[in-house]
Design a protein that fits this description.
Strand content: 15-25%
Radius of gyration: 23 Å
CATH class of the largest domain: Alpha Beta
Strand order of the largest sheet: 3-2-1-4-5-6-7
CATH architecture of the largest domain: 3-Layer(aba) Sandwich
CATH superfamily of the largest domain: Glycogen Phosphorylase B
Oligomer: single chain
Number of strands: 13
Structural class: alpha/beta
Shape: elongated
Number of domains: 2
Largest sheet: 7 strands, parallel
Length: about 400
């Protein structure tokens, strides 16, 4: 009997992970039956209007009433007494993470109680964070298999608790890039290569590059990303100060919201860039897509990334790109853009100056991007591969 597939999320749906929602919709359209569980419910302003309908289909574990939590624990204890007691003893009952560990342990019991009584399950989680922890606890409680999609910062930068255990216990790991697959082989050699599957992300094919803006008397710079340490917008702002000091006429618009807004606002004020740099706040997906045709160059100066959908969208729009040479970005961009070192605002400033000196050369390179996307990053084709992979896992 095939296993029922349950997708576990830490927070779903949310603006910063629209690719997860798009994947679920593509899998559903392709005929895959599955359930969606999330540890937490997003705030209303984190949900794109097109995603609101799916909220009613999601089971939010953190909102379960106490009677359901108690019933789930009793069910797990009766069904797998030794596994339950052994799992309970694996919870570190000291330190700051006690509450989180107990919540994730209870989340696993709730999930198994709701979905695992009639049919066996296969669980899948994006990223190695809280959703992966719930999947691991469910595996410990009932031997339910789970798989993971690893993206980038969750594997390399953030170092979530029990990362090695979460990876090693997974029955399959989906890597979205060759970079991640090579990283796993180097740093986690105990994971068999056959257990790692390369399935890239993607975007729908476009109709070709957008009409580019007419030359202006100033360079128009666009950057899109959450205002966080990962995205390193402070380097872009520093580079903008260098452009201003050398007499370059420009404007820079940074689209996104996040915990570093006040710090970036202070940096802009301290450098006297209020008339040059704008923090435009969060924008819905369709608004971001419309922006590409209004700017001359797109900048991504992150210090850690997976396989940025925003870069794919910029490539599809045909806007010249300057991005940091980290993780999977070089294999995504290839020779279709300019790569710079992370944490190097001087290098970014020089790349922007070079772009302004010879924009036609960069425009020509950007025109190659659409072919690259169609070859390796076709959303529908890659999601069909993922569907087949999940179906194979559900038959084990």
């Amino acid at each position: 009997m095939d296993r029922d597939i349950v997708f576990i999320n830490s927070l779903f749906p949310c603006l910063s992970e629209t690719f997860v929602y798009d994947q679920y919709m593509a899998l559903r359209d392709a005929g895959l039956h599955f359930h969606i569980v999330s540890n937490h419910r997003p705030a209303p302003d984190q949900i794109h209007p097109r995603m609101r309908a799916i909220v009613n289909e999601v089971i939010y574990l953190a909102e379960s009433p106490w009677r359901d939590v108690l019933a789930a624990h009793m069910h797990a204890l009766r069904r797998h007494p030794w596994r339950y007691l052994r799992s309970l003893l694996q919870i570190p009952f000291a330190g700051e993470r006690l509450r989180t560990n107990l919540a994730q342990f209870s989340g696993a019991a709730l999930l198994l109680h709701r979905y695992g009584q009639e049919r066996p399950l296969h669980l899948h989680a994006h990223f190695t964070y809280g959703a992966a922890a719930v999947a691991l606890w469910a595996h410990r409680l009932s031997a339910t298999p789970y798989s993971l999609t690893v993206h980038g910062s969750d594997l390399i930068f953030d170092n979530p608790p029990d990362l090695r255990i979460r990876l090693n216990q997974a029955s399959s790991i989906v890597s979205i890039s060759e970079f991640n697959r090579a990283f796993l082989a180097k740093h986690h050699p105990d994971i068999p290569a056959a257990r790692i599957e390369l399935i890239r992300m993607g975007i729908p094919p476009g109709t070709g590059p957008q009409t580019r803006p007419a030359p202006a008397n100033q360079l128009r710079i666009l950057s899109v990303g959450r205002l966080s340490v990962h995205k390193a917008q402070h380097d872009l702002i520093t580079a903008c100060a260098q452009l201003r000091d050398q007499g370059t006429a420009f404007t820079c618009t940074i689209v996104g919201e996040g915990e570093l807004r006040s710090e970036l606002e202070q940096q802009i004020s301290d450098l006297g860039l209020q008339t040059h740099v704008t923090l435009a706040g969060a924008r819905f997906h369709d608004e971001v897509l419309a922006l590409y045709s209004q700017f001359d160059v797109f900048v991504l100066c992150s210090i850690t990334e997976g396989q940025p959908i925003v870069l794919m969208e910029a490539m599809r729009a045909g806007i010249p790109i300057i991005a940091t040479s980290i993780s999977a970005i070089p294999e995504l961009i290839g020779d279709c853009g300019t790569l710079i070192s992370p944490n190097a605002p001087e290098e970014l400033s020089a790349a922007l100056t070079a772009f302004q000196a010879a924009p036609a050369q960069h425009e020509e390179r950007a025109k190659k991007a659409d072919d690259r996307l169609r070859r390796d990053y076709d959303l529908q084709r890659n999601h069909v591969r993922f569907k087949k992979h999940l179906e194979n896992l559900s038959r084990r």
